Description:
This protein is of the alpha+beta class.
Amino acid sequence: xxxxxxxxxxxxxxxxxxxxxxxxxxxxxxxxxxxxxxxxxxxxxxxxxxxxxxxxxxxxxxxxxxxxxxxxxxxxxxxxxxxxxxxxxxxxxxxxxxxxxxxxxxxxxxxxxxxxxxxxxxxxxxxxxxxxxxxxxxxxxxxxxxxxxxxxxxxxxxxxxxxxxxxxxxxxxxxxxxxxxxxxxxxxxxxxxxxxxxxxxxxxxxxxxxxxxxxxxxxxxxxxxxxxx
Length: 229
């Protein structure tokens, strides 16, 4: 019986020692990144039709007529992509008394030709309200930029790993884990005052004189290495 107790005691004493021997040593967590400031090359503008009427059918007819006019006006501009939004309507009340139905529908214009898009916006403002205008980096330019940044971020990670191994007087390192991620630039959005077009002075309805801005794109590489003896 005493032999069994002694054997069990020895096993408990030896287990932590074996655990320490199997635990990886010389693990270092690293992070590296690469960033680039790029010019935005894509302009997006959202315009809408807003109207009120006591009759929901007449309201829908009015908005559909203006949207058809907007689509027709946009056709000659072949370099501009146009996407229509959903129609929505709701009842409005004044002192708990039904006043009218209010409806709206929007369209989004997208183009790399900002001069041409600005011209179309000016034409559409005869019957539509500018809701927002923004610049952003196109998908093609974003993908190309991230490809170069990924290469640079990985090189930065490897250089940092080599530098650390040299400072600890190690022969090198082996890669243990690696994670790669990147940011999605969020350009500023310029909003117009939300009001009925027929009550807004043309000076307020005119689009802002916007200049293309820049976005910062960044790729991050983080992971762990094990220093070699």
